[in-house]
Design goal:
With 512 residues, the protein is of the alpha/beta class. It has helices at 13-24, 55-72, 77-93, 95-106, 110-130, 169-180, 194-211, 225-233, 246-258, 281-293, 310-326, 345-360, 414-422, 437-444, and strands at residues 5-6, 36-39, 46-50, 138-139, 146-154, 157-161, 184-188, 218-220, 237-243, 262-266, 271-275, 303-309, 329-330, 364-367, 371-372, 382-383, 386-389, 405-411, 426-427, 429-433, 453-456, 468-469, 472-473, 480-481, 490-498. It has two domains: 55-267 and 476-492, Aldehyde Dehydrogenase, Chain A, domain 1 (3-Layer(aba) Sandwich), CATH 3.40.605.10; 271-456, Aldehyde Dehydrogenase, Chain A, domain 2 (3-Layer(aba) Sandwich), CATH 3.40.309.10. Bound molecules: nicotinamide-adenine-dinucleotide. Residues 37-492 form the Aldehyde dehydrogenase domain.
Length: 512
């Protein structure tokens, strides 16, 4: 049995829809020219041509952002919140058009693309509230007539580097908070997502004009990774918030560290879910299929390893395989499609290499893995999500292959499952499916999952913005969006105010 498929739209249809969406977002599509070809992974066709910025543009844009920062930092934070509030309103009004660009460029199915824009709206709401809560602590001083306090101040220019798979939401996570904190923002989107970035930035630019914020407070840098290096090297970029592969993090982090800049890293994951014997398998099945096959396996939080108790492994794997065979693969804008394209030929080749290696290492492909030709589109790469039973997790299972491959491992004791879960270099997202509260608590304890995200009876992907998001180990240690993530975009000063009229020194030191 083969998967149902949805053929991509006829050539030219998508480019026309993209032009319409750009116009609605306030971008003149005829004004977009330049050497960069913005392609769609749905058909491989060129949707539009855009500028490609150079190192000279880096200097100019960072300079303009820095200039704007000098004004913006003096605007009271709750007033800065008005900018983000307006951006959120514009995103709400234009949700469908921006989501269309995300579908066209990143290949996300419609509901996930809409969800991505909703995430932008949600973080704007959160940031507006945060703009009245950039609070510092007051501490008791050891000296009489003294007040000790911590205050928070903006950093300056925040550089945001984003990945192709969340082409706009990750920018909003950073920009909404960075702006209310009083920073200017320069955004370098992924090379495959310039149109989505142009659309999202146009709405922010409009909000900037409408609320009278300094024009330069937002900047868009359409640049590849080579020019991106000049961007991360610029000493005026106080914080580089970079989302992408571990490879990128290894290049960017030392460069920023060498100039004592700050980094916030959101890198690759190799996420696992444990399925205990007591698990509700119906619920687990749905959580697993969404996390593993959704977004065609191209989320940082995609479920890549299933660690299932041997007593339920055969039944669960059989049910996952059956569910996989029903997934409609193809045009992500067609109703009913659940699995869109991979982003590129390179992704497809990486998926094929990983599967071949898994088999060499003793794996058995239970379902999927093949290319699906949904139409005569040689430059579009659709694949069947794969499930592979593995004898252990040395080798290929240690790596994040950014494609829908779910490796299945079995266990006997919970300690063994947790050791497998933690036994990879990455530390982003994790989950356990169990009805046993003691097991769930052990998984969540300090001796349990070592990831930044640890869930119970829910899959590894689909986080809400209220919680801080990020991961440990090679995932980079950064935290974005909710709780105290705003502090990453600010510097802290400790203030001692002496109103005593005397000059007592701390620790009882006597001098003069
Ligand atoms: P990538 O690392 O190829 O590129 C990400 C971004 O970094 C792009 O904008 C790219 O141009 C830029 N870049 C790469 N090398 C650079 C360099 N040396 N200097 C400056 N910029 C550089 O990643 P990708 O293929 O776009 O995205 C997929 C990866 O991103 C996966 O590993 C995924 O797990 C990860 N990701 C992580 C998170 C998270 O929050 N942890 C979220 C989304 C994606």
């Amino acid at each position: 049995m083969t998967n149902p498929t949805a053929a991509p739209p006829a050539a030219g249809t998508m480019a026309a829809a993209v032009r319409k969406a750009l116009s609605a977002l306030g971008v003149d599509p005829d004004g977009l020219t330049g050497p960069h070809e913005a392609r769609s992974p749905i058909t491989g066709e060129v949707l539009a041509r855009t500028a490609e910025h150079t190192e000279a543009d880096v200097a100019e844009k960072v300079g303009a952002a820095h200039e704007a920062f000098l004004t913006w930092r003096d605007v009271p934070a709750p007033v800065r919140g008005n900018l983000v509030k307006r951006w959120g309103q514009l995103l709400t009004e234009h949700k469908a058009e921006l989501a269309l660009l995300v579908t066209a460029e990143a290949g996300k199915i419609e509901s996930e693309a809409l969800g991505e824009v909703q995430e932008m709206i949600d973080i704007c709401d959160l940031a507006v509230g945060q703009s009245r809560q950039l609070f510092g602590r007051t501490l008791p001083s050891e000296r009489p007539g003294h007040r000790l306090a911590e205050t928070w101040h903006p950093l300056g220019v925040v550089g945001v580097i984003s990945a192709f798979n969340f082409p706009v939401a990750v920018y909003a996570w950073n920009a909404a908070l960075a702006l209310v904190c009083g920073n200017a923002v320069v955004w370098k989107p992924a090379e495959t997502a310039y149109l989505s970035a142009i659309g999202a930035d146009a709405l922010l630019a409009r909000a900037v004009r409408e609320v009278g914020a300094p024009e330069g407070v937002r900047q868009l840098l359409l640049a590849d990774r080579v020019v991106g290096q000049a961007f991360v090297d610029d000493p005026r970029v106080a914080l580089v918030s970079a989302t992408g592969s571990v490879r990128m993090g290894r290049e960017v982090a030392p460069r920023v560290a060498s100039r004592f800049g700050r980094v916030l890293l959101e890198l690759g994951g190799n996420n696992a879910a444990i399925v205990a014997p007591s698990a509700d398998l119906d619920l687990a099945l749905r959580g697993i299929v969404f996390s593993a096959a959704g977004t065609a396996g191209q989320r940082c939080t995609t479920l890549r390893r299933l660690i299932v108790h041997s007593s339920v492994a055969d039944e669960l794997v059989e049910r996952i395989a059956a569910a996989y065979r029903t997934l409609t693969i193809g045009d992500p804008s067609a109703e009913g499609t659940l699995v869109g394209p991979l982003i590129s030929r390179a992704s497809f080749e990486a998926q094929q290499r990983a599967l071949a290696r898994a088999v060499e290492e003793g794996g058995e492909v239970v379902v999927g893995g093949g290319r699906v030709l949904v139409a005569e589109a040689p430059d579009a790469f659709y694949v069947e999500p794969a499930v592979v039973r593995m004898p252990g997790q040395a080798g290929v299972v240690q790596e994040e292959t950014f494609a829908p491959i779910l490796y299945v491992l079995t266990y006997e004791r919970l300690e063994e499952a947790i050791a497998l879960q933690n036994g990879v270099p990455q530390g982003l997202s994790s989950a356990i499916f169990t009805q046993d509260q003691a097991e769930a608590e052990r998984f969540l304890s300090s001796a349990g999952s070592d990831c930044g995200i640890a869930n119970v009876n829910i899959g590894t992907s689909g986080a809400e913005i209220g919680g801080a998001f990020g991961g440990e180990k090679e995932t980079g240690g950064g935290r974005e969006s909710g709780t105290d993530a705003w502090q990453a975009y600010m510097r802290r000063a400790t203030n001692t105010v002496n109103y005593s009229g005397e000059l007592p020194l701390a620790q009882g030191v006597k001098f003069l």
